[in-house]
């Protein structure tokens, strides 16, 4: 008895000190979920920040590539515009009529030169063509007939005159003192430096070029070596400076009257942030709009000291890129976090079940020990009580095992039902071929036996394929679609049905489509759909006179329609309302899975199934996407 009491005392030692109770597990689970939520928030925030950073870089790189292409095209167009008028001063400087008029200065020679310049300027893109004497007074001009003629004006103060007299040639962009219109003055000296007769000048205006640039909607402008805007698609930016000018520079420009009374204010471009050798992110204010972010590209213009500036708005491109990268990031990240949450939840549920089971077992042991201690003096009664409790414990464990087994059988039953339904036709066909092979063996006809065995091998492979497809279906997996020959799929479906409906396939009238009519799907899954519909139609006509199942195809611009119609009794209204619901069937031994699986297969490939039924028959229409060839 003392030994029993001692053993009972040992069993009564609390075992919960080494384990957590369900309440403690619940508290720990709440803390774990809180930490997990904070960790997920941190991961998502970090991932979105990284995606935003990458998306912005990607958008800017794309804009740079596109912008450089556009800028190079604008530079090429500007050079093409400049090349033609540059040749005029070179040719006229050696013209005998020009030299004669400058040397003689007779009225008839000057008038003849005026007419010649007038005829020349009309055939070029130049604005004005004129000849200046060595004293700086314009002697002849293409606009000699106009009220604002250049004839008689003093241009000795102009840089293009002075530099041409000194160096032989010059190019100078300035605001016209007479026309008050800006343009590029291209000049060339007539005669040698020691015996100069004057200067030939052509003025080039860029109104058409600026109009062409403005059509793109993106600001483009040309700056000289001091950063002053000369040519621009935004007229209000003309003669503004890219950066602050010194007092000396401003005074010299004012004195030369190069830009008239222009204020030479700074361009409304600020906060430059370089991202490349000739690319900068800036904030700019365009006329009639508020400040926005732009990508500023600058590139040199060959054969001139100028540089082209080009502004590309970034907000829309960056926003689009950010949306795309963030969406892709969340698409990848959220399933991972969801899977982690699933594992965490499963672990918590498992731990809770173990804790509850352990608590129940400990409570049972405690009660047994209490009862055993109370009845320790009655040995027989104690043994009976112990046996009773052991039997109770065994029953409890048996019930728990039965519940686990019942749950396992329910899951296996669902899977087995779908598999049995889908491989029923191949098995029936295998049995028919095996029976045929036995008959052929009795007749000692080996060739048909080989053909039947080869067909049985193919069908067993098909069963394996079907089970793999059903496994993928159960796991929400999908086989990658591919072009499928509709004729081949129909013929394969008929092969599987031939043995089961031997003698009744005469009722099946198939209008076989032409070879090469491809639809989107996979061969085996489309055969499943056709088999289910053909089989349902034939079973509905069983025992009816004049039974007929018609199968036809119809092509439209986007899809292919497969029409399966019969002259059976139709589908009852109660069944028709929930026709595509699992386990809904009017057949005595049917599982109600065929149409459900068929609809899922068709929907997987972007199609749909329509059904019409009345007392005169049933019509199924399958819409499948046409596969591109």
Automatic annotation (TrEMBL):
Matches recorded under CDD domains: HATPase, HisKA
Coiled-coil parts of chain: 361-392
EC number: 2.7.13.3
Transmembrane regions: 32-55, 327-344
Gene Ontology MF annotations: ATP binding; phosphorelay sensor kinase activity
Keyword Ribonucleoprotein: no
GO CC terms of this entry: plasma membrane
Keywords on record: ATP-binding, Cell inner membrane, Cell membrane, Coiled coil, Kinase, Membrane, Nucleotide-binding, Phosphoprotein, Transferase, Transmembrane, Transmembrane helix, Two-component regulatory system
Domain of life: Bacteria
Localization per record: Cell inner membrane
Reactions catalysed according to its record: ATP + protein L-histidine = ADP + protein N-phospho-L-histidine
One Pfam family this sequence matches: HATPase_c
PROSITE patterns found in the cross-reference section: HIS_KIN (PS50109)
Record domain Histidine kinase: where: 418-628
SUPFAM superfamilies: ATPase domain of HSP90 chaperone/DNA topoisomerase II/histidine kinase, Homodimeric domain of signal transducing histidine kinase, Sensory domain-like
Membrane-related topology note: Multi-pass membrane protein
Role according to the record: Member of the two-component regulatory system DctB/DctD involved in the transport of C4-dicarboxylates. DctB functions as a membrane-associated protein kinase that phosphorylates DctD in response to environmental signals.
Protein name: C4-dicarboxylate transport sensor protein
Name of the coding gene: dctB
């Amino acid at each position: 008895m003392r030994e029993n009491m001692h053993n009972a005392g040992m069993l009564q030692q609390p075992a919960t000190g080494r384990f957590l109770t369900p309440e403690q597990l619940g508290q720990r689970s709440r803390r774990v979920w809180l930490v997990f939520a904070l960790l997920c928030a941190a991961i998502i925030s970090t991932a979105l920040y990284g995606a935003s950073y990458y998306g912005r870089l990607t958008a800017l790189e794309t804009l740079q590539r596109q912008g450089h292409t556009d800028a190079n095209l604008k530079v090429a167009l500007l050079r093409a515009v400049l090349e033609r008028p540059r040749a005029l001063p070179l040719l006229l400087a050696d013209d005998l009529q020009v030299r004669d008029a400058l040397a003689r200065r007779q009225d008839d020679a000057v008038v003849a030169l005026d007419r010649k310049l007038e005829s020349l300027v009309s055939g070029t893109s130049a604005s004005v063509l004129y000849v200046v004497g060595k004293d700086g007074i314009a002697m002849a001009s293409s606009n000699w007939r106009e009220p604002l003629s250049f004839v008689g004006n003093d241009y000795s103060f102009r840089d293009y005159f002075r530099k041409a007299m000194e160096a032989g040639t010059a190019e100078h962009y300035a605001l016209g003192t007479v026309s008050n219109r800006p343009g590029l003055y291209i000049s060339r000296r007539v005669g040698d430096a020691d015996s100069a007769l004057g200067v030939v000048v052509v003025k080039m205006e860029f109104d058409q070029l600026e109009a062409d640039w403005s059509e793109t909607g993106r600001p483009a402008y040309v700056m000289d070596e001091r950063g002053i805007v000369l040519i621009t698609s935004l007229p209000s930016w003309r003669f503004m400076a890219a950066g602050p000018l010194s007092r000396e520079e401003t005074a010299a420009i004012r004195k030369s009257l190069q830009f008239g009374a222009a204020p030479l204010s700074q361009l409304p471009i600020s906060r430059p942030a370089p991202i490349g050798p000739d690319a900068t992110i800036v904030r700019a204010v365009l006329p009639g709009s508020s400040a926005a972010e732009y990508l500023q590209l600058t590139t040199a213009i060959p054969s001139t000291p100028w540089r082209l500036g080009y502004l590309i708005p970034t907000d829309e491109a960056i926003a689009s890129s950010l949306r795309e990268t963030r969406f892709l990031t969340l698409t990848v990240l959220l399933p991972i976090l969801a899977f982690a949450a699933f594992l965490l939840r499963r672990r918590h549920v498992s731990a809770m079940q173990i804790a509850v089971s352990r608590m129940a077992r400990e409570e049972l042991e405690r009660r047994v020990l209490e009862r055993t201690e109370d009845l320790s003096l009655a040995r027989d009664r104690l043994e009976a009580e112990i046996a009773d409790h052991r039997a109770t414990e065994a029953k409890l464990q048996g019930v728990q095992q039965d519940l686990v087994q019942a749950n396992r059988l329910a899951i296996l039953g669902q899977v087995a039902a779908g598999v049995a339904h889908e491989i029923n036709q191949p098995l029936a066909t295998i049995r028919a071929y095996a029976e045929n092979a036995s008959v052929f063996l009795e007749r000692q006809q080996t060739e048909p036996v080989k053909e039947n065995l080869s067909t049985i091998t193919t069908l067993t492979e098909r069963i394996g394929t079907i089970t793999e497809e059903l496994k993928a279906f159960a796991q929400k997996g999908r086989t990658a679609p591919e072009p499928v020959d509709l004729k081949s799929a129909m013929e394969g479906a008929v092969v599987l049905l031939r043995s089961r409906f031997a003698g009744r396939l005469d009722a099946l009238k198939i209008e076989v489509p032409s070879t090469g009519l491809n639809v989107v799907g996979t061969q085996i899954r489309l055969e499943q759909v056709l088999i289910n519909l053909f089989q349902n139609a034939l079973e509905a006509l069983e025992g009816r006179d004049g039974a007929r199942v018609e199968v036809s195809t119809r092509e439209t611009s986007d899809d292919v329609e497969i029409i399966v119609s019969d002259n059976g009794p139709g589908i009852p209204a109660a069944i028709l309302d929930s026709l595509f619901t699992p386990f809904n069937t009017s057949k005595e031994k049917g599982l109600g899975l065929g149409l459900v699986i068929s609809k899922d297969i068709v929907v997987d490939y972007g199609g749909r199934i329509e059904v019409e039924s009345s007392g005169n028959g049933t019509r199924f229409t399958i819409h499948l996407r046409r596969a591109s060839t």
